[in-house]
Amino acid sequence: MWTPGYVTLIEALLTLFYFFLLIGVSYAADRCRNRILDAEKSEKEKEEYEVEKVRLVNKAQLRKIAGTHGQQFVVECVTGGSLANGTD
After folding, report:
1. E-assigned strand segments in 1-88
2. Closest C-alpha among 71, 41, 47 to residue 55
3. Residues in contact with 82: Cβ distance below 8 Å, sequence separation at least 6, in sequence order
């Protein structure tokens, strides 16, 4: 850099400083990225949980209807059969 063919003490110290600086920046960036990925994962898990909760509620409602009107009625309703339309 300043002295061709000879490394000065300042050049050596700057090189050493930048080496550790880049390692620190890389470590911080990796930790930040992992936090973001964990947050996204948590959001995805929350969405999956909500979908599963809705599915379980719907399943319970279908069982209740099946207990009242019979299992065949629920099957017909789900498949769009004649019982669903009220035309028997």
Report:
1. none
2. 47
3. 76, 88
